[in-house]
Design goal:
By secondary structure, this protein is an alpha+beta fold. 53% of the residues lie in helices and 8% in strands. It has a 5-stranded mixed sheet. The protein has a 4-stranded antiparallel sheet with strand order 1-2-3-4. A 4-stranded antiparallel sheet has the order 5-8-9-10, with helices on one face. Helix 3 crosses helix 4. The protein starts with 6 loop residues before the first helix and ends in a 9-residue tail after the last helix.
């Protein structure tokens, strides 16, 4: 559906973004300035205690300085409520009292159709709830009692019962004036292949309604009462409402619980989720009878950054957990991972809670392991590595798995952890010289360790700002120019928001600058002195800052802008060079070839030294980066890691 020009702007102007976001967060009253439309809160997208999530009513945008989530009111609704774009627009329009423009007839018909199907599903839920309390539902009530599922839990999860009648639900819904096509299209009934009246899909089964994150009933799950039923569990077929690969049982209540600090626990079935919730683990969900899909995994991450996979402790449960690992590897991002709660053998969460109580389950959740541990266990348990060939095969497999991780930082950390585990498995020992603190070169000659640094050296900026002094000094220069010429802050606001600062003092000073970026220049200066005076004093006391021409308040503003743009570009370029070298080393090194790793590290160090000797205040980092890249490529093409024959 297309919207007329200006409609979205008018919508955003009518509904302050703080009003939308305020339903999901608690504002930090000390840090916020509500009169100016400036709001701060803990971020709703990742777990934190500090107020690093900024909402600006004047701009209509939010930004998190921790996880870098950003957007407007519509994107906030889409991310937190799992809405489509038009759903978010319609919700805001209702809130603003704006009339939605005429919709495309075909799209409107589809939306109306889904609304009708959801209404039919609610009617079915009410029917099955009533049937549970009839004489026909006596056996189902006894079963639920044996599973320790009380009346309150049954009401909470709207559990019902489908008697064994062929057309019990179909007849009841038809009697209420609901069309046969709607009943069939909702997945509640099926048409016989030979023709005739539709028949109920769910018969002689306990019914579990499945709702989406907005609370609409989109499907049903049924647990067979007869022990010889063809399928113990039966779900609704896929419909216009229900896509089982994009749905999770109990997703809506779990999202609310996780927003209040509960962990997200991924179990295998309905009863596991119900048992977990009743035991106090409100953030519990389950896939719907299939292996976890990529869409379900992304849904989990939208609810919580680190879901805990708590599948059954039998062989099938472990296989399911390992499939999740293969699915998750390419999708991992910083702050977005998985942990695995290994259930006791032969038990699922429901069994464990009924047998040993909620505390036993809490201990299992607290002991959840990171994904890398299960990955290692899968590739090594029950196998012998008593030959170089077998060890090499393991290395190849692990390199292949780690190579599937797209995020370079996570890939590096996985490589380091796998290397540590490999050393433990193969019993690699440190050389004796290394144990004494020295080292041996390739000829076997031992070199004693270097002398300890002097106290004066330890106190120097070089030691304090390690591992990269130049980045630290360049950050200080950027902040000093902004302080001397506050009009530059608004111009470079987006770059200042996203640049990573290595010093907490720099970060604090940057925060104050961005909070007042659009104030008058003299007001910005006063705000910086009031909010980050100590941090500013440290920056301005640095020798290279004191003598820098653009830091002089009397300097030409255009000159200061040019210098600030150059400093930001150089900082970005240097970091890109380092990332390029690190990724090349990671790709070339391998997990077992220490010689390759050492030689490439020497090549990178040589590049770095050459770079430092060449840099001047007016150097062009774009050219330096190209030269470094070309030099590194020549080293790789020349296979510098291979020992050359004399």
């Amino acid at each position: 559906m297309s919207l007329p020009p200006g409609f979205l702007d008018e919508l955003r102007n009518r509904v302050p973004i703080s009003q939308v976001v305020g339903r999901k967060v608690v504002w930090d009253v000390r840090k916020s300035n509500q009169g100016k439309g400036d709001f701060w809160a803990p971020c709703p997208f990742h777990q934190e205690k500090s107020a690093s999530f900024h909402v600006d009513d004047r701009k209509g945008f939010y930004y998190c300085f921790g996880c870098h989530a950003k957007g407007d009111a519509l994107s906030f609704l889409r991310e937190t409520e799992n809405m489509g774009f038009m759903e978010a627009v319609e919700l805001l329009a209702r809130e603003a009292g704006m009339q939605m423009p005429a919709r495309d007839p075909e799209a409107a018909q589809k939306a109306d159709r889904r609304t009708e199907l959801a209404r039919v599903m609610d009617e079915a839920v009410r029917h099955y709830r009533m049937q549970l309390n009839t004489s026909a539902g006596a056996a189902a009530r006894d079963y639920l009692a044996r599973r320790k599922l009380g009346i309150a839990a049954q009401e909470r999860f709207e559990i019902g019962f489908a008697p064994g009648h062929r057309q019990g639900l179909y007849g009841a819904l038809r009697a209420r004036g609901i069309a046969a096509d709607l009943i069939v299209d909702a997945g509640l009934a099926a048409r016989p292949e030979g023709g005739g009246e539709p028949y109920d899909r769910f018969r002689d089964r306990i019914i579990y309604p499945i709702r989406d994150q907005r609370g609409r009933c989109i499907a049903l799950g049924g647990r067979a009462m007869a022990p010889d039923a063809p399928a113990k569990y039966l779900n609704s077929p896929e419909t216009e409402l229900f896509d089982k690969g994009r749905s999770l049982y109990n997703a809506g209540p779990a999202r609310e619980a996780c927003g209040k600090g509960a962990p997200l626990i991924v179990a295998e079935g309905y009863m596991d989720v119900i048992a977990l919730v009743e035991a106090g683990f409100g953030g519990a969900v389950a896939p719907l009878g299939t292996a976890v899909t990529e869409e379900q995994l992304r849904m989990m991450w939208r609810i919580h950054p680190e879901p805990v996979i708590a599948l059954d402790g039998d062989a099938a449960g472990m296989r399911a957990a390992l499939r999740v690992i293969d699915l998750a590897l390419p999708l991992l991002e910083a702050g977005q991972g998985l942990r695995f709660a290994v259930m006791p053998a032969g038990l699922d969460p429901d069994d464990l809670i009924r047998a040993q109580g909620a505390q036993a389950m809490a201990r299992v959740i607290e002991a959840a392991e990171p994904m890398v541990n299960l990955l290692w266990r899968r590739e090594t348990e029950g196998r012998d590595f008593d030959s170089p060939e077998r060890k090499a095969a393991l290395d190849k497999t692990l390199r292949s798995l780690i190579g599937r991780i797209k995020d370079p930082s996570i890939r590096t950390h996985y490589g380091e952890e796998i290397k540590r585990l490999r050393w433990e498995l193969f019993g690699t020992r440190r050389p004796k010289a290394a144990a004494r603190g020295g080292s041996r070169d390739r000829t076997g000659k031992w070199t004693p360790p270097p002398a300890p640094p002097l106290e004066a050296t330890k106190a120097s900026l070089l030691a304090a700002a390690a591992p990269d002094v130049e980045d630290h000094l360049r950050e200080a220069m950027i902040l000093a120019i902004c302080t001397a010429h506050p009009v530059c802050i608004a111009t470079f606001e987006s770059q200042l928001e996203t640049v990573a600062l290595t010093d907490p003092d720099h970060d604090a000073l940057r925060h104050v600058m961005l909070m007042h970026a659009h104030d008058a220049p003299e007001a910005i200066g006063k705000a910086i002195l009031a909010g980050a005076g100590a941090q500013l004093e440290k920056v301005m006391a640095l020798p290279h800052v004191r003598i820098a021409p653009p830091v002089n308040p009397t300097a030409d503003v255009e000159f200061a802008r040019m210098c600030l743009a150059e400093e930001l570009a150089k900082l970005s370029a240097r970091r890109a060079v380092r990332t390029e070298i690190e990724e090349a080393m990671e790709d070339m090194s391998g997990l077992a070839d220490e010689g390759v790793t050492w030689r490439l590290s020497q090549a990178a160090r040589a590049c770095h030294q050459a770079d430092r000797s060449k840099l001047t205040d007016t150097a062009d980092m774009g050219e330096d980066r190209a030269a470094l890249s070309a030099h590194l490529q020549s080293l790789i093409d020349g296979e510098v890691w291979r020992k050359k024959r004399p």
